[in-house]
């Protein structure tokens, strides 16, 4: 990783090529992304009622915050309008919707000063999404819903693009995670005991890269990039949206970022839906990524 492309006009094929090399792309807000965050913000405001969501943590015990935000996450994720808006936005950013497959968008809340760091407000340790059974051709897209600061952002750790890290991915099975880990998120309030792949060696997280975008601005990066949640000390809750895409031709041809330290089993490919009609990745393609003849557990998570 050595380059951040700002408001690049490169086409999607070249963009993916560079993303697979660890580069970052960042885009300013535009009408399609603003429509998406405005829809999310409306749902957030309605859920928190008279309280300002970015400071609501100071007006309630953490259990009450979880009781509000926990049900809001799947409500947003699976809302038909979320799917319509994400498709419109990807088209706007030059993706071919015949070959682009998308996952459902995630709604995130990162509260300030360690108020909630587990479960539905999980503060992510340094990790690659590929440790969680993501394909090497997965592209992550992230955008803030509210203004953020360096103290409430996401960090990238460029040293580890080409340097492997000893980690627990060899114990991670995506179908087991679908069976237990994802469903139990709201149960974890004071601590998070779910089995997740984490670094198993000391890491030097500096120098690091933090990209500060305006609400609706996008950062695109490879699932193989090492990244983490910056411990929020801004005094305000950070609300954001992230989602993932794969290009089916890259999936078929096994084109993507290099795999230097991911040893998980199972695959998240079955979560992805074709941009044009929301049909799933064909089973015969997904099974090539299973690494086992008889996958066990929940292949596709259903809330």
Structure description:
- The protein is an alpha+beta fold and 303 residues long.
- It has one domain: Sandwich (Jelly Rolls), CATH 2.60.120.
- The protein is built from seven helices and eleven strands.
- It has helices at residues 12-19, 31-48, 62-77, 80-92, 174-181, 248-253, 283-286, and strands spanning 4-6, 24-27, 100-102, 106-110, 139-144, 154-156, 209-210, 218-222, 227-229, 238-247, 273-274.
- The strands form two sheets. Strands 1, 2, 3, 4, 5, 8, 10 and 11 form an eight-stranded mixed beta sheet that branches. Strands 7-6-9 form a three-stranded antiparallel beta sheet, with no helix packed on it.
- α1 (12-19) links the parallel β1 (4-6) and β2.
- α2 (31-48) crosses α3 (62-77) and α2 runs antiparallel to α4.
- The longest helix has 18 residues, at 31-48.
- It is globular, with a radius of gyration of 18 Å.
- The relative contact order is 0.22.
- The mean pLDDT is 92.
What's the helix and strand layout?
Elements: E1 4-6, H1 12-19, E2 24-27, H2 31-48, H3 62-77, H4 80-92, E3 100-102, E4 106-110, E5 139-144, E6 154-156, H5 174-181, E7 209-210, E8 218-222, E9 227-229, E10 238-247, H6 248-253, E11 273-274, H7 283-286
Parallel strand pairs: 1-2
Antiparallel strand pairs: 2-8, 3-10, 3-11, 4-10, 5-8, 5-10, 6-7, 6-9
Write a concise synopsis of the structure shown.
Helix content is 24%, strand content 15%. The protein is α+β, with helices and mostly antiparallel strands and 303 residues long. It has a single domain (4-289), classed as Jelly Rolls (Sandwich), CATH 2.60.120.
């Amino acid at each position: 990783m050595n380059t951040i492309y700002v408001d690049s006009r490169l086409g999607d094929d070249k963009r993916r090529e560079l993303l697979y090399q660890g580069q970052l792309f960042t885009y300013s807000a535009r009408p399609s992304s603003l429509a998406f965050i405005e829809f999310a913000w409306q749902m957030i405001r309605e859920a928190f009622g008279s309280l300002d969501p970015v400071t609501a943590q100071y007006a309630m015990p953490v259990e009450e915050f979880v009781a509000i935000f926990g049900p809001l996450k799947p409500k947003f994720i699976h809302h038909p309008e979320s799917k319509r808006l994400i498709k419109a936005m990807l088209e706007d950013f030059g993706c071919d919707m015949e070959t682009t497959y998308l996952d459902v968008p995630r709604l995130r809340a990162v509260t300030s000063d360690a108020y909630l760091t587990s479960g539905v407000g999980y503060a992510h340790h340094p990790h690659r999404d590929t440790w969680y059974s993501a394909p090497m051709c997965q592209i992550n897209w992230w955008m803030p819903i509210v203004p953020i600061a360096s103290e409430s952002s996401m960090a990238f750790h460029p040293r580890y693009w080409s340097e492997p890290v000893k980690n627990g991915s060899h114990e991670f099975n995506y179908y087991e995670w679908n069976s237990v880990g994802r469903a139990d998120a709201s149960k974890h309030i004071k601590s998070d005991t779910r089995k997740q792949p984490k670094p198993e060696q000391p890491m030097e997280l500096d120098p690091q890269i933090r990209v500060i975008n305006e609400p609706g601005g996008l950062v695109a990066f490879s699932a193989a990039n090492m990244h983490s949640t910056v411990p929020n000390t801004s005094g305000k809750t950070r609300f954001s949206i992230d989602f993932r895409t794969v290009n089916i031709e890259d999936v078929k041809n096994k084109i993507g970022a290099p795999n230097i330290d991911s040893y998980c089993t199972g695959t998240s490919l079955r979560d992805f839906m074709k941009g044009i009609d929301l049909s799933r990745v064909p089973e015969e393609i997904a099974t090539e990524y299973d690494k086992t003849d008889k996958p066990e557990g929940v292949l596709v998570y259903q809330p």
